TrEMBL record, chains A, B:
Superkingdom of the source species: Bacteria
Pfam families assigned to the protein according to its UniProt record, in alphabetical order: LpxI_C, LpxI_N
Name of the protein in its database record: LpxI family protein
Residue intervals of the LpxI N-terminal domain: 10-131
Segments forming domain LpxI C-terminal: 137-263
Amino acid sequence: MPGTPEANRTAIIAGSGGLAAEVAAGLDAPIVAALEGFAPDGIAAETFRLERLIPFLDGLMDRGVTRVVFAGAVRRPALDPEAFDPLTARLVPRIAMAMRQGDDAALRELIAIFEDAGLAVAGLREVAPQLLPASGILAGRVTAADDADASRAAEVVATLGALDIGQGAVVAGGLTLAVETLPGTAAMLEFTAQSRSGRGGVLWKAPKPGQDLRIDLPAIGPDTIDQVAAAKLNGIAWRAGHAVLLDRERTMAAAEAAGLFLWSRPDD
Amino acid sequence: MPGTPEANRTAIIAGSGGLAAEVAAGLDAPIVAALEGFAPDGIAAETFRLERLIPFLDGLMDRGVTRVVFAGAVRRPALDPEAFDPLTARLVPRIAMAMRQGDDAALRELIAIFEDAGLAVAGLREVAPQLLPASGILAGRVTAADDADASRAAEVVATLGALDIGQGAVVAGGLTLAVETLPGTAAMLEFTAQSRSGRGGVLWKAPKPGQDLRIDLPAIGPDTIDQVAAAKLNGIAWRAGHAVLLDRERTMAAAEAAGLFLWSRPDD
């Protein structure tokens, strides 16, 4: 109810991982909710099912929520046809059609459904800008060869984005060792670790060109450091202002300890 | 020496695998040569080192060779700086610069060096057309969903080609599960096997757009069948007339036995 003390609250739609807790820490009394089966780390969350999305959104608005922000990774949930309420069921053809068009289309449609229900969907750049490092080298040292690899990888990701494929690539000495696809960054880095004999190179992360930046921003955290070290890369670079650095102090310390650079890289 | 019985011979530059033997079977008394360390299967080959390429090419011409054909996969060999002869050493800056520009540039430069030495470089389409199946379904059955996956994968490979990345992709239900990079097809399929939970989908193979078709055509053989079966795909499709089907009878029988389709697919 607008005008009550609870009005203008923010709801965090939490995915798995620690991002939701970090976003919540910067907000005043947010509601934290997560899809059943995708509980976030480090913070309690109420759960909802996609099959009952409309009643869930109505419930948020009844509690004074005017704005939602997506925080964290969600995989496509399995849907139980018997669990739908009638209003959400009506959205199924729309969601199914969007899913067939790929991840970007599915996420854009999800945002549209929230907005149609009367909620503003904000991005992390607006709600939690402190989590998105501006340009700068945050750990280690970057060489000219690393810069060239990052530039090449950025070109690969930009080109792939037109195909709605991944947000990442691994380039070493100008050669593309791996490209991120559906299985994600960790799987790509494990592939790199297993399939290469040398060392060096860069993990590059960036949103897909044309992606809605209010959802599914790339994220780098302590786990990424371990995976990049195992893949024998020199460091991690990302498009400045367009990726989340999780657990910043710990991630930076882990990068220094592993001899890896962390580079929030300005556009070429 | 032109005019002698030995004139107009063809030399097969063999990579590893069985392709060179299949090419040789269709030719009259070819010379078969392989880089040291990359011996082909099923046929004897003389060896040469890249550091002594010019004397090797001169030797071929002395024996009446006028035409060479590349047959099989060659990885970048390690070069021993002490092993160079003076003429080949002069080519090193040219080769090194091409290598830095990626695989396609390196292979184009290699072809140019053969041609500069006075040898014609022919493609498999000219020398061994019987190894490149024309359009048709060679094993199993293809559904509309498989066709859509193949079409999508063809689009992925065509787009990646502009970046000189791989010749293959795996698409299932419209989703890109894997993209071929430096480690090659077998590594991509192993990644797919390890990272997926479902089944279905297509392995697509095609040359990179703009690639010189006289070298490094995609090849499908019995090993590919095993790898595709382990990745739980429905089958293999490739750009008709632009990929080699190795060990045809055995590969087709293996595909049928594994319930996989083999599809030499015309362009969209």
